[in-house]
Amino acid sequence: MGSQQYIQVEKKEDIAIVTINRPEKLNAMNIDVVKEMDNVIDHLDKDDGVKVVIITGAGEKAFSAGADIEYMTKISPLEAEKYALTGHATLNKIENSNKPIIAAINGYALGGGCELALSCDIRVASKNAGLGQPEVTIGICPGWGGTQRLIRIIGSARAKEMIYTGKRISAEEAFQMGLVNKVVELPQLMDECMNIAKQIAKNSAIAVRISKTLLNRGIDSDINTGLKLEIFGWSLCFSHPDREQRMTAFVQKSKK
Ligand code: COA
User: Fold this and answer.
1) 3-class state of residue 127 by DSSP
2) Which residue ranges have their beta carbon within 6 Å of ligand 1?
3) Treating both helix axes as pointing N-terminal to C-terminal, what angle do 156-165 and 146-154 enclose, rounded to 10 degrees?
4) Which of 26, 27, 61, 105 to probe ligand 1 with, by most ligand atoms within 8 A of CB?
């Protein structure tokens, strides 16, 4: 995948850990960080040896403090559009990746950092984490999907409060509103994410992949379209040898 300045990838068996490594800037995502992340996701998507991806930030303070504010002080509307398009393309790639992706939120997840977490399938936060969409405090609105994904995850009233106030919420508050799946102490964060990843990885990769597609496509479809898609996805599982092996193994075991 070429040499990366800001994004590290470590593989632990069939689980890939992707780390944003710019801790001196609280893992803020300048355009190079975003492009490297895009490149990494492309590679992992094609790697059949990887079943689950975990995204985290380097250090003990931040998952990511968001888009790079210093860079944004200098850019024109057209450059801003390009920055937004780049962010959207990468976060869409994460959301639509054929692997489940877990955000291990190890500290601040603000602005684009929160939006990055929103594009992941599952979010686990450490107790010290703080999440928020503070864009309005610096004169912009969320620009990497926050206005669209947050509302779908936590509902309109809570998303509007978070985005209009720009306030930071604790990991515990994020858990209460369903924004994160779990809260653990920071030293336990990676173990917890690895446990979830291992549980997923031992299941049929094709069945998990089809489930992800159905869940993601269904949420923006009407219920009948979503249910129809489910029938197609379910039937497609029967074309894979994994289904036959797993069902036969189950039946043989229960006959013993
Ligand atoms: N973009 C660029 N640089 C950032 C950044 C961002 N989003 N967030 C933090 N940094 C940089 C700081 O400028 C500082 O750099 P310096 O040491 O060269 O001055 C470094 O990261 C450490 O941040 P600092 O603000 O000193 O840490 P803190 O502990 O006092 O505060 C935060 C932490 C997260 C509360 C604060 O950094 C912050 O509010 N960041 C911006 C969050 C935000 O609004 N994100 C949305 C952007 S759209």
Assistant:
1) coil
2) 25-26, 28, 65-70, 108, 110-112, 134-135, 138
3) 140
4) 26
3-state secondary structure (DSSP) of residue 146: helix
pLDDT tens-digit map of 226-256: 999 999 999 999 999 999 999 999 999 877 6
Q: Are 149 and 115 in contact (CB under 8 A)?
A: yes
Read off the pTM.
0.97
Dihedral over Cα of 222, 223, 226, 228: its sign: negative
Tokens for 158, please give them.
């809570």
Residue 216 forms beta bridges with which residues?
none
How many whole angstroms from 166 Cα to the centroid of ligand 1?
Answer: 15
**Nearest-CA residue for atom 38 of ligand 1:** 65
Write the pLDDT tens digit of every residue in 55-107: 999 999 999 999 999 999 999 999 999 999 999 999 999 999 999 999 999 99
Quote the CA–CA distance of 146 and 41 in Å, as a whole number.
20
Give the Cα separation of 151 and 75 in Å (integer). 28
As separate numbers, helices (DSSP H) first and strands (DSSP E) second, the chain gives 11, 10
CA trace torsion 206, 212, 214, 220 (10° rounding): -160
The tokens describing 25, both together, are 């800037």
Instruction: Could you list the beta-strand ranges (E) of the chain.
Output: 7-12, 15-20, 52-57, 62-64, 101-105, 108-110, 122-126, 130-132, 169-170, 182-184
Q: What SS3 class is residue 17?
A: strand
Q: Give the Å distance between the CA of 23 and the centre of ligand 1.
A: 10
